[in-house]
Amino acid sequence: MATGHPHGGSSPWTWVAGGAVCGLAWSAALRGYMVELVGDGSTFSWGGTFGALLLPGAVTGGLLGWAEHLRRSGPPRRWRWLALAPLALAVAPMLMPGAVTTLVTTGMGSAAIAVALMGIVGGYALSGRGRRWPRVVCGVVGVGFAAALAAAVPGMTDPPLSLTEPRGAWAALLAASLYAVLALGCSIPHRHAVPAGVEPR
């Protein structure tokens, strides 16, 4: 029975909404990791927590959901640019008052930029599309970034957590898995389009 959608798939809004929910859950988990790093010094605010992290996380997820819908709709229709969706995670914090000055003078805020860019790099590595050697290079860089996130836990947490202790190991796994999930999502716009008449799997 015809559904009115390509390949019998769902409405584009279903993909966008589903991606936004995933992005929101991801950014909320990232905020939990940030609490683990800072400890009692971590603070929450409507602008900083919701406007600079949760909202761009939802936007990023929604854009990647839209990319998956377009990928399943057939030939590419200028949707490769959605590979830049994670940049919302880098741009939003810079819109906060004084954020650019703080970035230039102290370097605070550079982590958001690094995560967004490395998400794009990891996404390309996992896409299975394009020349192999650039993807291998991106994969090596992405794995190194994930390993660095995990290894940095003892030096970044307050109080310091050892990777040989359950809580420290959990924090390291959380950091690495959050990056892995981001990279998987970011691979969507790079993947091959689903040919017409082929049911996506």
Give the tags.
201 residues; mainly alpha; 8 helices
How does the SSE layout of this entry go?
Blueprint: H1 12-38, H2 46-72, H3 87-94, H4 99-106, H5 110-126, H6 132-151, H7 153-156, H8 166-186
Helix pairs in contact: 1-2, 1-8, 2-3, 3-5, 5-6, 5-8, 6-8
Uncertain segments are 1-8
Most strands sheet: none
**What oligomeric state best describes the polypeptide chains here?**
single chain
- Quote the distance from N terminus to C terminus: 19 Å
**Approximate helicity band:** 55-70%
Explained architecture:
The protein has 201 residues and is mostly helical. The protein has 8 helices and no strands. The protein has helices at 12-38, 46-72, 87-94, 99-106, 110-126, 132-151, 153-156, 166-186. Helix 5 (110-126) packs across helix 6 (132-151) and helix 5 (110-126) crosses helix 8. The protein is globular, with a radius of gyration of 18 Å. The model is unreliable at 1-8 (pLDDT under 50). The chain crosses the membrane at residues 12-34, 46-67, 79-96, 102-124, 136-156, 168-188.
Brief write-up:
Keywords: Membrane, Transmembrane, Transmembrane helix. The protein is built from eight helices and no strands.
